[in-house]
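anyone seen this seq b4? input:
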Amino acid sequence: MRRVSALIQLTKPSIMLLVLFTGATSLIIEGSFLGQPVDFFLVMLGLFLTGGSANALNQYFEREIDSRMSRTSSRRPLPTQKVKPTEALVFSITIGVVGVLLFWYFFNLLTAMLSLGTILFYSLFYTLWLKPNTPQNIVIGGIAGAMAPVGAWTAATGQFDFVPWVMFLIIFLWTPPHFWALALYSRTDYEKVKLPMMPVVVGEDRTYKQIVIYSFVLFLTSLSLLLLGAGWFYAASAIFLGYKFIRKVFRARAIRSESSLKGLFGYSLVYLFALFMAIIVDSLLLPGRFLG
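predicted toks r here
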């Protein structure tokens, strides 16, 4: 059981919870699988396998870096030698292949290709090239983490739509302020392993400025769902949650303490879960509102 637990840790379960929740939100508002629990479950399983594969490959490639960072050296299964590198690689590839084939066999080729592209983009392009070479790594790399609503929607419909792409954009814009809060209070870790995270390369002042900009754009983007059918409950929730997010950002910039940054990082998680929960509740108040 310890080995199984260690393998599951390779998938980054806390991140996968967010991926699955945003994907489930997309399925709920689209509605086709609400009366088909097996299909709903299979989409969730496919998202977990493909997203988990990308995360596990990321840990495999970064195992040496993780062993030198205090934030990861005692927590991740490869630095702690709970899993051997070869086992991690085989596990990562296996669940990725199974997930892609699942989407292809039970749903459609479009979703399978999106999933395969996400795995390759995050595990290879982001991990091996973007992350060690540019401070914009987390911005561009955020594409992979934001794909769940799009993939879930295409699994159900076989085609793209504006609504899941707006949800994608919300997650994409949320990622930089969320992660840069972590990078600011973990700056010495990144300096030690020579990763060009934003605070390391451009300094704290410019990083805080970027967080402010992204937070305002995120807030405005969240309101764009009102143009696609969202109602009063979502509107009130998005305004309230966005206002609190921006307040947390300005507080962190003013105080510049580890506790304020951890507060911003923690609230950013609450914000995204609550915002997507508001999408679900709003869609249940008037089913089909997002479908025109």
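Residues 29 and 284 are 8 Å apart (CA to CA). The domain at 2-291 is CATH 1.10.600 (Farnesyl Diphosphate Synthase). kinda curious what u guys think
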